[in-house]
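Format notes (please read before filing issues)

Several people have asked whether sequences and structure tokens are stored in separate files. They are not. Every record keeps both together, in the order shown below: the sequence lines, then the token lines. Line labels are part of the format and must not be stripped during preprocessing.
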Amino acid sequence: MTSKIFSLILVFTTGLSFSQNAEPTYFDKKWKETSKENASFYRIKPSKKVGNLVLIEDFYINKTPQFQGYSLQKDENSYVGDIVWYDENGFDTSEYQYYNNSAVPVLTYYYPNGKKRKTIEYKKGRKNGFLIVYHQDGTVLVKGKYLNGKPVEGDFEEVRNWDDYRNNKPEEEAYQEQTDVMVETAPVMVEDYQSGTAKREIKKLIKSKIFWINSKQLAQETWYDIEYDRMNRFKQINYDVAGKVLQTIGQTDFEQYSRNISNGIVYEYYVQNQFAVAIKSKTTYKDGQKSGEEIKYYPNGKIQEFTKYLNGKIVGDEIVYDKNGTVMKKRTYKDGEPFEGNFNENFSGSLIINSNYIKGLKEGEAIVKTDEDSIVAKGIYKNNKPFNGTFVVKTGEDTHELIQVTDFKKNGLQKVFNYHIDNILKTYTCVNDVVNGETVFYDNGIITGKIEYKNDLPYEGKLVEAQKAIIYKKGAIAEEIFYRNKYERTDENNILKSKSFTSGKLAKIIDRSFTIADKVQDSYEGIYKNEQPYSGYFSAELREFNYVNYYEEGIKKYQYSNNYLENLEKYQHPYYDIRSTYKDGKIIDGVEYIKLDRQFISKYWKTGVLQSFDVDLFAMHYFNRFHFELKNNSIEITEFNKKQKGKITREKTGNKYTSQLLIDGKVVMSSASIELNNETPEQTGSIMYYESNQIIKAKILEVKETDDEGRRESDMFYEIFTSTVNSAKTIEENFNSIAEDFSTSKNIEAMFGKGDNADVLTGLRFNESKKPEIGILLLKNSNASYNLKSFFNGKVVEEKKNIDIKNIRQEVKTMNALLEKKMNEDFK
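Then the structure lines:
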């Protein structure tokens, strides 16, 4: 059946050429006009003209279609609407949609025999209105509606990125013509095609349909949910030429984001003008990976290639057939890699490597060709290594080389290229695997540097790497030059900074990458002594946040910085308007910056005393700032996101000090240090036991706030207060302790409620009668050992006596495990 359909294409194609009355225009392989005898292509004359447009229809000399599409009469290279190229068999190879800014609102396309194939309505350059695809007998096969370029209702030949239009105008003009449009369609309920899965409501539905050529029978029908401007496939059915269902794929068989088929068979077709002529390939997928058979076919229906996959890897034998069904090649894979036989492997760009494998190793001749079948390298492998000849090899993540090898060693000119072999990055010369001679660097074909190598080392010249160049003189580095971008490396105005060397040692830097408010100038100089900063300006050269240090006679005097939140958009050339002063290697006046994994700390000093500090927290799609300030004998805390204010105070009652946490002026928690020799506390609350420098201490926490939701809203304030504040310390000492914890990442997880404070041992909660309710009581004996007693619902669960301090943690861990078990049982 497939062979008959394929034959019909040639019949209709032939009919077209005989139906033309005027003599065609003939072209050679380079599309220059020529005689019929020397022609490779021809164009129908006269071409159909509509308004200011002309329909170009080109053919191969064998009368097979080569191109169809509209263009402006005044410029045939200015395409309009849908255009399509065909291969020598008449199958679609490339298709694009262009803006239609002409005066023709409806474009009509034709079958090879001249009958009307489809019409498309346009408005303001985009498809707007109806697309209608006709059978050759004139009946409608497909009818769909576009609204400002987007398919919104009905059926379509294909559903692509609806905003994917090409243009013949400057890009900025095209962008001005595009407008965002809100689309409204009637809700459509679609049944769930996957039994046992939850139903999904599809609100905006369109379909794409592929018909078998010269038939009204569907080959493939795909359903799309276009809600929220996304083209999501959720159902697909494939049919054979007789109308038999080959497969039905439902919602859960598509990948969540890409909407590619995750479970099922992917069918590809030989198509002409979007009509299926024959199956080109069918590939089985399971859980998003190739798993099962992949079969490629010739247009006559015969198998071209047969491959089996398991979990995305080729397994066993891959067999290649000729058009008559005779085996041409058989190659064996092992663990998804070539193992035995002759293989064609896709390489960088358009290169294809043909090589032989024996037991997983390359052996014998390997030929590298372009997709146009021209040879670029040919060499012999021995034991999987290049032996003699030319080879293409991968040398880095984005770099490859065309190498010349003699007796396993590089000899002669070698070429380094990026993705495409014509995009040469550099050439160098080797003698017996050693780089000797001239190395030349290129950027888009332009030479950007040359350097002479001696015995594998740079000796004289300019070595270029991306946005950097290194100048060598007599084997020693003389200068490093850093450019603003790699595209203007020959422009002196593009130099960002340069480093000078004396006898190979760093001596001076000239930096143009920043501006200092106190001393505005074109560049800033820094002098090195023994390769260490000695005098002048030196940038920290950090990625996210940068600053400049100023030295005099080897001593750091000032640091220049800025408010990085206000200068995020000026990171390429920062303007530093904050000056901090150093003394004995520490900042005593100004701002000190500390960059950690997930937080950025800014400390504000005055005459060596910390006045305030900011803690900036970073996560995916999250930022928050907490400002801490020592003010009026209290610690004031402001949260940036919630605009919430907290305060930590300290009061003396009798001989004891009590710390308090206030939120928005209201006391919500208090804390006081206690001794470990009394089973009954002086107040209700919870005791927290913690270890510090081999000493166990305790503090009692009393919650004044009973609103759980309010506590959750102020969680950070509570965590800081419970994990860091010590009522035995002064406010200044607590302030500095909090700053130190943030600056060194100490107890950070506990502060954010995401982990346990490393110092905390255990805790115990008391009821209103000051009796132990749940947790572990820890008391110190006169012999410096400890007694432990665990409680649950006010009753003693377990008791251990005379525990040495070094064993406390393990005993607490064991007792807590039993408490957790009882809590779980009680919960059930």
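For reference, the curators noted about this record: Residues 1-20, 170-199 have pLDDT under 50 and may be disordered. DSSP finds seven helices and 61 strands in the chain.
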